[in-house]
């Protein structure tokens, strides 16, 4: 009889593999040349990696699938298994888990693979030993007074800065998602160079861990790299006079239309201490708008003491709530906390973006507006799982720089004692109520003390919350109150009030422009970052494959997760359903590689990152340029004859 075999692995043979639990004879040679890599299987050999690598090996003739394992033991004891994959159809693997920093003598992590044929299995391959070592700590970059700046680290999700000289009572640490940090602790209510002249700091890169439960033996993987040495940054004395704008600073230092766009959220620098009306001030706020008249506000900063502001995702400083606390603020470093009530020049209550609720990370392929279908494709199932709080959404969306961009300015802020204020109850308040409805809640602030009622039912209360006309109190009311009873403020906290209107200062020229364009990942550098089985049955890195190819890409600055899509055409790019992801239009991963489930034909794929410091539901970054990849059809040949 005549026997047909495939020149390379045929995916349809998966159905012919031995039944679960059946004994499988071990025969033949084990897979050879198992190795790890980051972008292409043919890159120079490495055995130490700063992010989870991909893996490849020489294909085995007759294999219908491969089993792959990672472990902390070269003997692959069950308790040492970190990751397993049992149904790989091509000789490549793209683990999506976060591997721990781990080193050995000579190695501490090991990979192995074996081929499963129709009626037998090969021995396991020789172990490939490797280590996981973090990149070196960030180093300082040139900056401007009041602003720390450092080298971005490939693959870092965020950074932690340690202010060496602040301990009140514990060490002061700040986490940020960009590569700049303002020195607000040193400048707020301080002007002497004894406070601001020299700033000592250390820094380390942080990474998010995608679903620790993926690690089979639950081996912990810390989220931080090594601390840097102690760095010292020196500031010149504070410049007085009219407020003037400086530069926007992140991965680039920009000063307007002729400058490149920022890939990371910038910091903002300025000088001066004098408002338009000549008032001397020591507090400032940055506003960002989409128009040159400074009307459509998209970002409100925390209040800082200057001369720089950079967004922090975990909140502003706890500014003094009353006048009596200001002397103490002048003799100490303020801790993080919440800002007291603050208002714009025209009376609008302000809330810094740093105080907004934490963003929700994108963990599934979003509903895609690029689909050619008349009906929008539904979002995919959850594929990623991030623990912890990623902080407030303190980043900005992309712009088409320089044709469009953002406008920013700085206004002077004053700490004001608001004085007495009177309103009346709008509804009945029962005995024991924790709140009352006032005719107007305007001007009331958290911490204000009140007298409520007339004569026999008059009582004092302290405000702990204001929402419209509803005033919430620290303790239950001791009396009931009817409609129209007086509410009189008798004690009050400081309010922080803008002393200038952004529209006015922008009209007079105190406005500057900048662009923000997220960094796309690179899917090629001359040659495609793709690896897999060649049509002739060999391991290859290139553009043409048989079976499912593995693609890789460079980490994008600011990205913590990635989405991959594929299309039959380059333009229009029409994302195709992913049968391995409930037919969502693509796949999500926390890694920088993925195996694409492509059928035979010519395909185009693209990759984009997700910036978790953007608002929930709008964290998409720029797409990479579509890359072409070809998957060959199976080839058959006659290898035997007879009946």
Walk me through what this model shows:
The chain has four domains: 4-132, Immunoglobulin-like (Sandwich); 147-359 and 387-415 and 500-514, no CATH class; 419-493, Beta Barrel (Elongation Factor Tu (Ef-tu), domain 3), CATH 2.40.30; 524-638, Immunoglobulins (Immunoglobulin-like). Residues 1-21 and 639-643 have low confidence and may be disordered. The protein contains four helices and 44 strands. The radius of gyration is 31 Å and the shape is elongated. With 643 residues, the chain is mostly beta strands. The strands form ten sheets. Strands 35, 36, 37, 38, 39, 40, 41, 42 and 43 form a nine-stranded mixed β-sheet that branches. Strands 19, 20, 22, 23, 24, 31 and 32 form a seven-stranded mixed β-sheet that branches. A six-stranded antiparallel β-sheet has the order 25-30-27-28-29-26, with no helix packed on it.
